[in-house]
Amino acid sequence: MKLVLASNNRGKLAELQAMLAPLGVELVRQSDLGVPEAQEPHLTFVENALEKARNAARHTGLPAIADDAGLCVDAFGGLPGVDTAFYATQFGYAKGDDNNVRALLEQMKDIDNRKAALVSTLVAVRSPQDPEPLIAVGRVAGEIAREPVGSNGFGFDPVMFIPRFGQTFAQLPVEVKNASSHRGMAARQMLELMRERWSL
């Protein structure tokens, strides 16, 4: 089955393709099919992911899957949340992973409460009108490191310190990170939901 990924992020494509491989699903980025990016006006991950999945399905006629993920920092009342991808732009930096990390560390330099969670919400639809979207959520709690460490992964992985590993996500081998990450958790749930509900 061909499934449209409602994202142009190569990192997400690679991670999700590996995680959904047991289903024999071919994941295709929406940009490869000429799908414009959806608006993300909502305040929650699930609403934005649903918006993106329906948009991709509407433009392609194919089933679609979308991921809305972000960093929720305790000291900021759960923010940046759905605005994670654009976090750096609030502080005069260009959009991008490195600038997001730089801005976060600057904003947290005098903050002792370093607790944070990475959250991934996956939503899959069979069609734009699907009344029963599949929804899977993964969440990993950790702490924001004082400086970036490690070279694996993307996004906030270099500063997301996971106490049970004693390392940041970016220090972990890719297979360990994928098995333990917020996106990994959500993808495993999604795998089971697709098997159960979509007869794959």
UniProtKB/TrEMBL annotation:
SUPFAM superfamilies: ITPase-like (SSF52972). GO terms for molecular function: ITP diphosphatase activity. It comes from the Bacteria. Mg(2+) binds at residue 68. Binds 1 Mg(2+) ion per subunit. This is dITP/XTP pyrophosphatase. Keywords: Hydrolase, Magnesium, Metal-binding, Nucleotide metabolism, Nucleotide-binding. Pyrophosphatase that catalyzes the hydrolysis of nucleoside triphosphates to their monophosphate derivatives, with a high preference for the non-canonical purine nucleotides XTP (xanthosine triphosphate), dITP (deoxyinosine triphosphate) and ITP. Seems to function as a house-cleaning enzyme that removes non-canonical purine nucleotides from the nucleotide pool, thus preventing their incorporation into DNA/RNA and avoiding chromosomal lesions. The keyword Hydrolase applies. It comes from Caenimonas terrae. Its cofactor is Mg(2+). Its EC number is 3.6.1.66. Belongs to the HAM1 NTPase family. The active site is at residue 68. Substrate binds at residues 7-12, 69, 154-157, 177, 182-183.
